[in-house]
Amino acid sequence: MRRYELMLLFRPDLEDDKLQAAVEKVTRAIVNAGGALTKVSPWGKRRLAYDIKHFREASYFLIHFDIAPAEVRGIERGILITEEILRHLVTVLEEKTLGRADDDILIPEEEIPEELEGTDDLLADEVGDDVGDEDEVAAEA
Question: Helix 72-80 crosses helix 16-32 at what angle (to 10 degrees)?
Fold first, then answer.
């Protein structure tokens, strides 16, 4: 199962009971598909950046849920035929890593062979003289 985030934009002219019924319809579809709701947050009415179906406002809802990836398409299909929903967006919530992104490819110090110890600490005078200065490169150009 993966964690998803679903943003729903509902028509602003819906009454509160119809709005709650529409949200419940979506959450019921998620649960019926084998998903588990994590969070349902109403964001209220907000102004849109541009008109969507001749509306300048929408009622926003954010839903976090866990579900098998194969079931997401079926949920989106149901959302697309719901007249109360102006727009929706489903995104995958990635797990936050604590360290760097490439930590899994780094070799722990105890696994570095002795002959390679200290080779990453080269000083500038140990580097060969075949590397040109900026002045030399500029003069050659």
Answer: 150
Q: Is residue 13 part of a domain?
A: yes
Domain extent, residue 42, equals 2-92
In a domain, 14, yes or no: yes
Q: What phi and psi values does residue 50 have, to the nearest 5 degrees?
A: -150, 165
Phi, psi (rounded to 5 degrees) for 126: -85, -15
pLDDT at 94: 85
120 pLDDT above the threshold of 60: no
Scanning the chain, the segments in alpha helix (DSSP H) are: 16-32, 72-80, 134-140
Does residue 121 sit within a domain?
A: no
The pLDDT of residue 33: 94
Asked if pLDDT for residue 55 goes beyond 50, the answer is yes
Q: How far apart are CA 75 and CA 78, in angstroms?
A: 5
Please tell me what DSSP assigns to residue 125.
G
CATH code (residue 80) = 3.30.70.60
User: Is residue 136 one of the residues assigned to a domain?
Assistant: no
Between the alpha carbon of residue 137 and those of residues 36, 92, 112, 126, 132, the distances in Å are 63, 49, 37, 21, 7
